[in-house]
Amino acid sequence: MTPIKLARSITILMSIFIAACRSESPSDPVCRIDSEQADNISANAKCIVRVDDLLLTITREGSEAYEIPGGISKTGESAQCAAHQGTWQATGFNVEVGQYLGTDKDETRFYECKLNTGFGSELSNYPVPKWLTSDTSQIQLVDPFNTTDKSWAQPEQLVFIRDMFNKTH
Question: Fewest C-beta in 10 Å: which of 20, 52, 103, 134?
């Protein structure tokens, strides 16, 4: 690892640990949408967050199954804001919601979401912030092509998730 990558990794890790140690919840961030990708469709939505060649996933208390973070759309809320808000509430990451990738059989919309610059795959597990009110037990990066359907909370969606992952940059 180069000195610059090492310094960046240490800075990110320190920021995550500091945020994870906070007991009070920070204010919810404003919905972040790439202005060139904005739409006004209201639906449940999830974020496909690619970090190098890995996918950001969560696991919930009482389960070891991977899930894609996302949210349920409130009345009048766009699917992109539901994806942003749900990802924030499940991970503490303030992602930027980008291009629409597809819709699954349950009518959940999937979007490509980006983390701030500086995130890399040097870390495969991230601490769960104490202030999260969700039931997230782990935040991790996984290779979706190195998992089986039994590894996922919705096993029938693995092929779809891989397709959505392949559409990201």
Answer: 52
Q: Where are the beta strands (DSSP E) in the chain?
A: 45-51, 54-60, 70-71, 96-103, 109-114, 125-126, 136-142
Structural tokens at position 76: 């009048």
The closest alpha carbon to 99, from 26, 13, 5, 35, belongs to: 35
- Written as six digits, the tokens of 38 are 């904005």
Cβ neighbours of 62 (radius 10 Å): 8
Q: How far apart are CA 80 and CA 46, in angstroms?
A: 8
Asked whether the whole model's pTM tops 0.90, one would answer no
Could you read off the pLDDT of 98-153 as tens digits, one per residue? 999 999 999 999 999 999 867 777 888 889 999 998 899 999 999 999 999 999 99
Residue 52 region by backbone torsions, left for phi larger than 0, else alpha for psi between -120 and 50, else beta? left
- Residue 60 sits at φ, ψ, to 5 deg, of -105, 160
Instruction: Check residue 109 and report its DSSP letter.
Output: E
Burial string for 29-58 (b: 16+ CB within 10 Å, else e) reads: eebbbeeeeeeeebbbbbbbbbbeebbbbb
